[in-house]
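thread: overnight batch results

M.L. [08:02]
morning all. the overnight job finished for the chain we discussed friday. pasting input first so we're all looking at the same thing
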Amino acid sequence: MRRKILTICLAAALSGFSGCDLIDDLENELDNTRARKFTVRVENVSMPGTITSDRAGGTVPLSPGAYAVYMGDNPMFHVDQPANNATARIAEDGFPMMKAMDLKNNSKVSMSGTFDSPGGPDMGPALFAGEVSTFTVTAKPGDRLQLQTMFVQSNDWFYAFGDNGLALFNGNSPVSGDMTDKLVLYDAGTETDTAPGTGPYQKPVQDPMATNVGPDDTVNMIRRASDRHPGFTIPAKNMVIKITITPQ
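M.L. [08:03]
and the structure it wrote out:
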């Protein structure tokens, strides 16, 4: 296909047209023909006793989250740098609206939005044990996916794909299947931490609409939770969350 494009553009150039502009237009058209829709399934797989705590029966609720499809630099956060206010509101309080607005106004983001619980026993937006949320994105080769959702039994932890997000294509082939192993549990570095399911400042023991409650962390940067707190007992990510991606 690219050989055909180059042949057409060379002929156009010899005829006095702009070969470079035509190449750009035809390559954009080629990328559009390769665009695919993906269904992203976010499942809370935690169970009673996943953490040692009476809160939520030892399960780990997941907050409503935000997602973005983008090309280039991660538009949501950077490891070893301070979290912005939008990331802090997800990581501390489980509120994705500020992040959604940031992403909507970001020129390198082609698609973004939020996801939450379909209802469940509490009829609330958080994903409790056994609940599933799905959303659909459209992407083309070179696009990446990033998301953020709070590990609710914490002060300011969130799940996301690595610092560079998740590539949605391997070459021109769409990725498919269980992507949980690509996730990382991060400490946002915005609030002093206690072990999962403990302490007076974690979301389960706050007013549901409260924001920014609790003392500031002395290390104000995003790091892996396990690196930041090697003494805490932190459940494996596949005991809490499962992400499945299915191309359509």
